[in-house]
Specification:
It contains 18 helices and 31 strands. By secondary structure, the chain is an alpha+beta fold. It has 5 domains: 236 residues, Rossmann fold, CATH 3.40.50.300; 91 residues, Translation factors (Elongation Factor Tu (Ef-tu), domain 3, Beta Barrel), CATH 2.40.30.10; 71 residues, Alpha-Beta Plaits; 116 residues, 2-Layer Sandwich (Alpha-Beta Plaits), CATH 3.30.70.240; 82 residues, Alpha-Beta Plaits. Strands 11-10-16-7-8-15-12-13 form an 8-stranded antiparallel sheet. Strands 2-3-1-4-5-6 form a 6-stranded mixed sheet, sandwiched between helices. The chain is globular.
Length: 665
């Protein structure tokens, strides 16, 4: 037994109570040991997948709240098993996107296959590192479909957070096993015993089942690998039909587009096997008329974490397939692959996600519209939670109205467009989809329903048609130190929230649940929460259907003439504030003319905000050269008459950057 193995066995034998009492002393005793001694060297042997029947496979994911150490734990697991060289530069190895490395968060689930010897036998472990932010929960739910278990990681200093609970409930819905892990026990602020109590309370687990580790230093990480094999079920135990001799049945749980290769489909094989040269199809492809429905498998393999061709995947294994698909419509996430001529029962697929935030993107130049459309198509291939609709704005031209799960989701999508596809886009202010219940029989017949969706000001109906308006609501869960409780309640109530429940996790932490309007949280609620809780508060939310509200359409008038492109729809609680902001932005952006420009925001015929752009100041006496007061007053009267005439006939030209500023902010 080598030094690395001996150290890990010794650490693994320390019980959890010992960590709670002496975790810091244990850290001091091993903190000087370099990470390279805690991990194996990378081997160059090729993995023969035929050596791994379903009972020698473990498929698992890593889930946690943001910044609790998922990616760091994945790095250590890859190092220990020899999948990557041990190096101090190994940080977020599975986070391959530039936006992930810049922001330090995971936004795209990534897969890696590793091998590990346990009790004299070799096992194949398929790891899926998932995002932690609530806006990317769809990535988590899709990844769980390819797993039989998860590692639920909790920060030893932060404890159970809002998204930790949300992820735990996802695993319960998926019916898969959980290995609870406390990470960052090496921190001075770590409180392992208190976090254990929280996990026992919220997750109803036994304390002895919790594994305490430090993913950064490598302390006790190898015991996680042993627990994966000993405590998680194999695909054979979890799936009754997991048999390599049966017909091919594979779930497409992720996909992406690669230049020159086309679509890369990530699949979990639950029955049969798939190899290079096979002719495959899917249930979705067979439902498409006049399209190619069969494909030849060009290449198949696993991720280590880079793609490695194996030529075949067997039942219970997770890998990638290239079969010449060129368009996004051909690789549908949640679809079922099977051999041509041997149909199988399709998987249920994934539940479609409701967009929580709507944003509109326009190309910076209309000549780039086609390229932007192709870029959005490729990016939405591996993120089917994004909804896409064409739209047109008289001020900005043709664009796309996109639906996202949250504001960060929108921001990351925009950044990926710019970084990965070199697209320059104008993104408008995010909005939420309101609804109107119609009372007019004629309008009900026209729309085919008594309910219509209001996404833009152009959709706003005549008030005489309307019975009531509805706004989307969410159930928000805030977890914060108890000393900030008053500030949290004040913030939620200022955002028109209604308290649902309040409970204490322990003497120092509290959990508050509020019902909140979605349009009150999409822009800056999380930032405000972090501010009032000194960075210790966490927030998670879920859809809570719709409830009645009052809406107002705010129109902008320039010298009495309406500018339709600047019209907006707001809740009655915020339309006055937003109208004042729009007037001020226009005042700053529209250049002065030879006549005054009166900016007004109106609801119906009522003016709710206004601003004035004064005209250029001209020296009307410049060419006078002298003379008495009578001549000067004559020029003043003439100048005023000219101003009045220009104000009546003068056309206010709103520059494009004014539209962009008003719509973006």
């Amino acid at each position: 037994m080598n030094l690395s193995r001996s150290l890990f066995v010794a650490v693994a034998e320390v019980n959890l109570v010992g960590y709670a009492r002496n975790g810091r002393n244990l850290y001091r005793s091993v903190q000087q040991i370099p990470v390279r001694l805690l991990s194996s060297k990378k081997t160059s042997k090729q993995i023969d997948l035929s050596n791994f029947p379903p009972d020698k496979i473990r498929n698992f994911g890593i889930i946690a709240h943001v910044d609790h150490g998922k990616s760091t734990l994945a790095d250590r697991l890859l190092e220990i098993t020899g999948a990557i060289e041990a190096s101090a530069s190994n940080k977020q190895v599975l986070d391959k996107l530039q936006v992930e490395k810049e922001r330090g968060i995971t936004v795209k689930a990534q897969t890696a296959s590793i091998t590990y010897y346990h009790k004299g036998e070799e096992y194949l472990l398929n790891l899926i590192d998932t995002p932690g932010h609530v806006d990317f929960s769809y990535e988590v739910s899709r990844s769980l479909a390819a797993c039989q278990g998860v590692l639920l990681v909790v920060d030893a200093s932060q404890g159970v957070e809002a998204q930790t609970l949300s992820n735990f409930y996802l695993t319960m819905d998926a019916g898969i096993d959980v290995i609870p892990i406390i990470n960052k026990i090496d921190l001075k602020t770590a409180n392992v015993d208190a976090v254990c109590q929280e996990m026992e309370k919220f997750f109803d687990i036994d304390r002895k089942d919790i594994i305490a580790i430090s993913a950064k230093t490598g302390i006790n990480v190898e015991s996680v690998l042993e627990a994966i094999i000993d405590r998680l079920p194999s695909p054979k135990q979890h799936l009754k039909c997991c048999n390599s001799s049966g017909p091919l049945k594979a779930l497409v749980f992720d996909s992406c587009y690669e230049n020159y290769k086309g679509v890369n489909a990530n699949i979990a094989v639950t029955s049969g096997k798939i190899k290079t040269g096979d002719q495959i199809t899917s249930h979705f492809l067979q439902s498409l008329p006049r399209s190619k429905t069969t494909y030849e498998v060009k290449d198949v393999g696993i991720l280590e974490p880079d793609f490695h061709s194996t030529g075949v995947l067997y039942a219970g294994q997770v890998g990638c397939v290239y079969c010449g698909m060129k368009t996004t419509a051909e690789a549908r996430i949640g679809d079922t692959f099977h051999h041509v001529g041997t149909p199988v029962e399709a998987f249920e697929g994934f539940k479609s996600m409701k967009p929580m935030v709507l944003g509109t993107m326009y190309p910076n130049d209309q000549s780039e519209y086609i390229n932007l459309k192709k870029s959005i198509d490729k990016l939405t291939l591996n993120d089917s939670s994004v909804t896409v609709h064409n739209c047109n704005c008289p001020a900005l031209g043709a664009g796309f109205r996109l639906g996202f799960l949250g504001l960060l989701h929108l921001d990351v999508f925009k950044q990926r467009l710019e970084q990965e596809y070199d697209a320059t886009v104008i993104c408008t202010t995010p909005t939420v989809p309101y609804k109107a219940i119609l009372s007019s029989p004629a309008q009900i017949k026209k729309h085919g329903s008594d309910e219509m969706t209001i996404s833009t000001a152009g959709d706003f109906p005549d008030l005489s048609w309307i019975k009531t308006f509805l706004q989307p609501m969410v159930t928000g869960t805030v977890m914060a130190p108890a000393k900030y409780l008053e500030a949290v309640i004040d913030l939620c109530e200022r955002r028109n929230g209604v308290e649902q429940s309040l409970s204490y996790i322990n003497d120092n932490r509290v959990i508050v649940v509020y019902r909140l309007p979605l349009d009150e949280i999409i822009v800056d609620f999380y930032d405000k929460l972090k501010s009032v809780t000194s960075g210790y508060g966490s927030f998670d939310y879920e859809d809570a259907e719709y409830e009645e509200t009052n809406l107002a359409k705010v129109d902008i008038l320039l010298n009495g003439k309406i500018v339709p492109e600047l019209s907006s729809v707001f809740n009655e609680s915020k339309y006055q504030r937003m109208a004042r902001q729009i007037c001020e932005r226009l005042k700053e952006t529209i250049p002065p003319q030879l006549f005054p420009i009166n900016i007004q925001a109106v609801v119906g015929s009522k003016v709710i905000a206004k601003s004035l752009i004064k005209p250029y100041k001209r020296d009307i006496f410049q060419k006078l050269g002298g003379g008495d007061m009578t001549r000067k007053m004559k020029l003043v009267r003439k100048h005023k008459d000219e101003e009045k005439r220009l104000r009546m006939i003068g056309k206010v030209t709103v520059p494009r950057n004014a539209f962009v500023k008003v719509l973006q902010e």
